[in-house]
């Protein structure tokens, strides 16, 4: 059994190590984790892939067939620290809650995974699979760490991936894909007193923005519902008395199935082509970020056991995630079974005074440990 003493001190130390992204420096965290594993004789390596950024990869067992437990080490910034009741990097504990940036997203799961590998080693558990812990960087911005790990072959021989993102210990079997588009609108400047002599790029943008909503697919996913659009940023113009010659806005589409992506791309291009034919302003599009939607394609024994254990804890609901995870970088091309499941309340993502329930982290560590032992013991 994994106890509080096995996992909570690790969580607190991880919270105390700043890994805000930006700037995304995770070297302190990966060195700390490497030091813990090496103390117990667990083989560990650091994958440096960018300045001040690295992944940490540890494994238990010798099989060519692997199971990956993955969590990211970077966090979003803490913001104005004076607004926090408890300092964001102090890892203070109050009434069963551990407070701090990253406590929910997602150092609770990271600490659990570390404790799991140590428990397997200490108990000399013989498994048919090699268990890999992959601690990534840059998940909050671009998922470059997961991409680097995949490019180095982390998925070779992999038969199951557990992504420890916070789900309140509910079993997640799908996540939305991300499709970000920048729309750039060009006009012609003129004096604000004679707007008829210019072409307003901002007015052009106001014509296009409602049309972007028409692109949202009608398809309704049985777990995640409909795809969505958020127009999250708009900028344009220079002065109030100048007809704006340039305006841009950014569209954040979240797609519930990856086969919707090309249709969305095609419809946006159609809208822009029509806009440019009718004038007078003109526009162009730039794809700035794409992350595929993923969905569990088959239920292996490990998935069934995780579902049962979640139900035993009162988490009967099977969920899909509205946000993206490193799983979207690892799973495509391999189509291995996966589950997204971890400690932490969904309303604690990226908030001031972020916290995680101590007992939930302990429960998660034991749930995953027991599942691995029951599923893969020789």
What is the element layout, followed by pairings?
Blueprint (H helix, E strand, L loop, with lengths): L3 H13 L10 H13 L3 E8 L2 E8 L5 E7 L20 E2 L2 E3 L3 H20 L7 E7 L7 H8 L6 E6 L7 E5 L1 E10 L14 H13 L6 E2 L3 E2 L1 E9 L9 E10 L5 H18 L3 E10 L2 E2 L5 H12 L5 E4 L5 H4 L7 E3 L14 E3 H19 L2
Parallel strand pairs: 3-6, 3-7, 7-17, 8-16
Antiparallel strand pairs: 1-2, 2-6, 4-5, 5-18, 8-15, 9-13, 9-14, 10-11, 12-13
Q: State which percent range the strand residues make up.
A: 25-35%
- Corresponding CATH superfamily of the largest domain: Zn peptidases
Task: Give the N-terminus to C-terminus distance in angstroms.
Answer: 19 Å
Characterize the main sheet: 6 strands, mixed
Element-level helix/strand string? HHEEEEEHEHEEEHEEEEHEEHEHEEH
Strands in their spatial order, largest beta sheet: 1-2-6-3-7-17
As for the CATH topology of the largest domain, it is Aminopeptidase
The CATH architecture of the largest domain comes to 3-Layer(aba) Sandwich
Flag low-confidence runs: none
Helix count equals 9
Q: Any idea what the shape is?
A: elongated
Q: What is the overall pLDDT average?
A: 97
Helix content: 25-40%
Notes on the structure:
With 378 residues, this protein is an alpha+beta fold. It has two domains: 4-175 and 293-376, Zn peptidases (Aminopeptidase, 3-Layer(aba) Sandwich), CATH 3.40.630.10; 177-291, Alpha-Beta Plaits (2-Layer Sandwich), CATH 3.30.70. The chain has helices at residues 4-16, 27-39, 103-122, 144-151, 201-213, 261-278, 301-312, 327-330, 358-376, and strands spanning 43-50, 53-60, 66-72, 93-94, 97-99, 130-136, 158-163, 171-175, 177-186, 220-221, 225-226, 228-236, 246-255, 282-291, 294-295, 318-321, 338-340, 355-357. The strands form five sheets. A six-stranded mixed beta sheet has the order 1-2-6-3-7-17, sandwiched between helices. Strand 1 (43-50) and strand 2 (53-60) form a beta hairpin. Helix 3 crosses helix 9 (358-376). The two termini are 19 Å apart.
């Amino acid at each position: 059994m994994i106890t509080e003493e096995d996992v909570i001190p690790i969580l607190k130390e991880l919270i105390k190590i700043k890994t805000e992204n930006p700037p995304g420096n995770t070297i302190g965290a990966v060195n700390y984790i490497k030091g813990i594993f090496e103390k117990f004789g667990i083989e560990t390596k650091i994958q440096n892939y960018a300045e001040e950024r690295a992944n940490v990869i540890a494994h238990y067992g010798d099989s060519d067939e692997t199971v990956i437990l993955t969590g990211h080490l970077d966090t979003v910034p803490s913001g104005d620290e004076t607004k926090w009741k408890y300092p964001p990097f102090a890892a203070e504990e109050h009434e069963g809650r551990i407070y701090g940036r990253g406590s929910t997203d997602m150092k609770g799961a990271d600490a659990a995974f570390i404790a799991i590998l140590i428990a397997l080693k200490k108990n000399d558990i013989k498994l048919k699979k090699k268990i890999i812990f992959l601690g990534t960087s840059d998940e909050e911005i671009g998922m470059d760490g997961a991409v680097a790990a995949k490019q180095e072959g982390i998925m070779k021989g992999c038969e199951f991936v557990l992504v420890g993102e916070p789900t309140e210990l509910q079993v997640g079997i799908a996540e939305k894909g991300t499709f970000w588009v920048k729309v750039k609108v060009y006009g012609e400047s003129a004096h604000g007193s004679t707007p008829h002599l210019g072409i307003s790029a901002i007015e052009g943008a106001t014509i296009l923005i409602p049309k972007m909503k028409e692109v949202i697919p009608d398809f309704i996913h049985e777990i995640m519902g409909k795809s969505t659009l958020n127009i999250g940023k708009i900028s344009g113009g220079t002065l109030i008395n100048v007809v704006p010659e340039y305006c841009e806005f950014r569209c954040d589409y979240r797609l519930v199935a990856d086969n919707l992506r090309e249709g969305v791309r095609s419809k946006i291009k159609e809208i822009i082509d029509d806009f440019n034919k009718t004038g007078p302003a003109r526009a162009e599009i730039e794809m700035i970020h794409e992350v595929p939607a993923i969905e569990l394609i088959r239920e292996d024994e490990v998935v069934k056991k995780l579902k049962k254990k979640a139900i035993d804890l009162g988490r009967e609901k099977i969920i899909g995630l509205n946000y993206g995870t490193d799983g979207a970088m690892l799973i495509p091309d391999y189509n291995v079974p996966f589950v997204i499941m971890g400690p932490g309340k969904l309303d604690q993502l990226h908030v001031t005074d972020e916290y995680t329930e101590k007992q939930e982290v302990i429960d998660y560590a034991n749930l995953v440990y027991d599942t691995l032992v029951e599923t893969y013991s020789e």
